[in-house]
Design a protein that fits this description.
With 466 residues, the protein is an alpha+beta fold. It contains 10 helices and 16 strands.
Length: 466
């Protein structure tokens, strides 16, 4: 639902008169001219006049209020909220600014906040004209809430690409420690680099998500995803994964909470299977329309069966049976010039090896390297390049250390992994998107057998259902 500029400006004019702002501009040419432009129905020109003065005059109640109205009525609600926040910080009872802040939230699509601000203004007994228009906004919000009570979305993707190192093979020569029990068993006390497997691949991804609001605060949700990856030549590394999640959500003011049960299954090369189940929780806080903070945690139980297709004598449970805990925090900040989003997260975790006693070399079960402790960081930037093109860059880093001494090097295994992803999104329309992507991964381990470099290039065709 949209409201015409005239109706919105009547509200602003009423509140300007109530606050006495308009009567104080005679000795201030910029303010006087901006006020005249607003009354003449030229908010864009008023914003152009005031915006260069913002750095010097931000914090002046009268200036910030006129700047906010000019920004709002010229289609810049994000800029308007910043100006109105400064006004309300000085005068929390300024009904006009609170009303226009509600309008800005409405234009941004932040309807819960818009509704809260409109209701606050109604309690301040505004003029009848303002009350009638506020009620129209509230009616529109109520209609939208009813229509959005149950949301079902889905997607389907087709992918083609090329992988330079399908098996994460090392290109380094490995040397055994001089005091290793394996020392002297191989020529030169070394293992040569592995053969790197490269090739083309295809993939199909699909998923569906449902969210149902029980009332204004509580909701339930569920989603399921399918990922299929097939290599043109090295089919032993093909995989299929199914993941699902079901949970409950709570919206409490600017904070949102989610608690869910998770589960999934991955089949690799038709010979190895991994099952996962767990619990996940998340908190999200939006202090303003352009900022978001979050915290998350997950516990998962992973169990494997079968064997890797390339190593039939290896029991998948040794490496695959783990209990994992991950905790982290994240944030997003939206920018308007240039238009984009800066996002980042940091996390820590622990992976316990819990395999039963399978091998004589592991009398206590588990795996050779034991428990894994890790920490990671990810930061990225997404920007709008044009009305139909977006660009994304993402950089991740993770460090891990293991609890047991590895007898190949007679030391504790440790490693770091860095990945860089560069992507574009070409929006053909609201439903169809073409996404070319280039990614690089570098892993460095004190056991060279686990070090590798990998490059992938792919193109994805995606269709979104709503």
């Amino acid at each position: 639902m949209k409201f015409g500029r005239s109706a919105a400006f009547v509200l602003s004019g009423v509140m300007l008169a109530i606050s006495g702002v308009g009567a104080q501009e005679a000795g201030d040419p910029a303010m006087r001219d901006a006020d005249a432009l607003l009354h003449a129905g030229k908010p864009a020109e008023a914003y152009t006049l005031l915006e260069p003065l913002e750095f010097v005059r931000a914090g002046e109640l009268r200036f910030d209020y006129l700047l906010g109205i000019a920004a709002l009525d010229s289609g810049k609600p994000d800029k308007a909220t910043l100006a109105f926040e400064r006004v309300l910080a000085v005068d929390p009872n300024f009904a006009g600014a609170r009303l226009d802040m509600a309008r800005a939230y409405y234009q941004l699509g932040d309807l819960p906040r818009a509704k809260t601000e409109f209701e606050v203004v109604l309690k301040q007994n505004p003029p009848e004209a303002a009350r009638a228009t506020i009620q129209k906004y509230l009616d529109a919000i109520a209609a939208h809430e009813q229509a959005q009570r149950t949301q079902v979305t889905g997607y389907a993707e087709g992918i083609v690409g090329h992988d330079s190192n399908i098996a994460n093979s090392t290109t380094q020569t490995f040397t055994f420690a001089s005091n290793s029990p394996w020392s002297g068993l191989f020529t030169g006390n070394q293992l040569p680099p592995s053969s790197t497997l490269a090739g083309n691949y295809e993939g199909v991804n699909a998923g569906m998500a449902l969210h149902h609001r029980l009332n204004t605060r509580w909701g339930v949700f569920g989603n399921a995803d399918l990922h299929q990856h097939g290599n043109t030549t090295h089919t032993a590394y093909d995989s299929t994964a199914v993941d699902a999640q079901v949970g409950v959500s709570l919206q409490d003011g600017n904070s949102g909470y989610k608690l869910s049960l998770t589960g999934g299954q991955t089949d690799s090369g038709s010979t190895m299977h991994r099952n996962a189940q767990g619990v996940a929780g998340a908190w999200q806080y939006n202090p303003s329309p352009d900022r978001q903070f979050s915290a998350f945690g997950q516990w998962s139980q992973n169990r494997a069966s079968g064997y890797p297709a390339t190593s039939p004598s290896t029991d998948a449970r040794i490496e695959g049976d783990t209990d994992q805990v991950v905790l982290g925090v994240g944030g997003v900040h939206l920018f308007t010039d240039p238009k984009g989003a800066l996002f980042g997260s940091i996390f820590v975790g622990q992976e316990k090896d819990v395999a039963p006693v399978i091998s004589p070399g592991l009398p206590n079960g588990g795996r050779v390297d034991g428990r894994k402790d890790f920490v990671g960081v990810r930061i990225g930037w997404q920007t709008t390049l044009s009305p139909t093109w977006d660009g994304t860059v993402s950089l991740g880093w993770q460090s891990a250390k293991y609890a047991n001494i590895n007898n190949l090097i007679m030391d504790y295994r440790s490693e770091t992994q860095t990945d860089l992803s560069l992507g574009l999104a070409w929006h053909l329309n609201k439903a169809w998107t073409v996404k070319p992507q280039l990614s690089f991964t570098h892993k460095d381990s004190n056991i060279a057998l686990y070090s590798f470099d990998r490059t992938e290039v792919s193109v994805t065709l995606r269709h979104d259902f709503q």
